[in-house]
Amino acid sequence: MTKEALFEQIQQKQSFLCVGLDTDIKKIPTHLLDTEDPIFEFNKQIIDATKEFAVAYKPNIAFYEAMGAAGWASLEKTVNYIPKDIFTIADAKRGDIGNTSSLYARAFFDNMNFDSVTVAPYMGSDSVKPFLEFKDKWVILLGVTSNEGGKDFQFLKADGKPLYQQVMETSSRWGSDQNMMYVVGATRPEYLKDIRRIIPNHFLLVPGVGAQGGDLKAVCENGMNDQCGLLINSTRGIIYASSGKDFVEAAHQEARKLQTEMASFL
């Protein structure tokens, strides 16, 4: 998907909502466990409940890998079920030497037809550039993460700059705002102004709004650009809004609530 097509979706839906599909067999409503593929059935119903508000879906690959071949089958069915005009993110956090990265890219872009994949920048340019060789596909590079351990390295300073800023400055030259995005945790909105000085035109994938305590208003005020430039991810607050048979309606209501709030910022 191109940047223009993504922005068109944002304008049409008045939303920049990304729904995380971190589907845990232990958390889905028990009445689904009797279906042929409980993981896919849950995802299918969540997608149906939220697709009018969502511009992106983000399955976390670990939840599917943990189930072996059956999990990969559920993931493939899920990706194929998502409407083609909605952006898809393989939240895989891959990153390895060139040949291996090329194979990861083929797995997610050619085989499963995701629009994007999250990538770790630690091994440098030759671990990222293979993902950038695919037309209309995206790298979403880890920038500033919201986990507590993110402080261990991301804010270490060299030459007066925190490491995350140096990562963004350097990596932004590997691609462009047409094929690279960055992960910036919603619990770190105070860094968004500095980040926007470095990458004013790139999209940012912002997890952490909702259950993790991120503030949508603060993220929008500090991180939005003239093409929105944000994909705000919500997972638990939507897909696990209810653990009962009303989970579809609960997910619909939570997604609509976020979309309504997002529309006020566009």
UniProtKB/TrEMBL annotation:
Q: Where is the active site?
A: 93
SMART domains reported in the protein's UniProt record: OMPdecase
Task: Provide one Gene Ontology biological process annotation.
Answer: 'de novo' pyrimidine nucleobase biosynthetic process
Q: At the top level of its lineage, which domain of life is listed?
A: Bacteria
Which residue numbers delimit the Orotidine 5'-phosphate decarboxylase domain?
16-251
What pathway is this protein said to act in by its record?
Answer: Pyrimidine metabolism; UMP biosynthesis via de novo pathway; UMP from orotate: step 2/2
Q: Which GO terms describe its molecular function?
A: orotidine-5'-phosphate decarboxylase activity
Q: What is its EC number?
A: 4.1.1.23
Q: Which CDD domains match?
A: OMP_decarboxylase_like
Q: Which residues form a coiled coil?
A: none
Gene3D superfamilies xref list? Aldolase class I
Alphabetized, the UniProt keywords read: Decarboxylase, Lyase, Pyrimidine biosynthesis
Give me the reactions it catalyses: orotidine 5'-phosphate + H(+) = UMP + CO2
Please give the family membership noted in the entry. Belongs to the OMP decarboxylase family. Type 2 subfamily.
What this protein is called in its record is: Orotidine 5'-phosphate decarboxylase
Q: Which organism is it from?
A: Reichenbachiella faecimaris
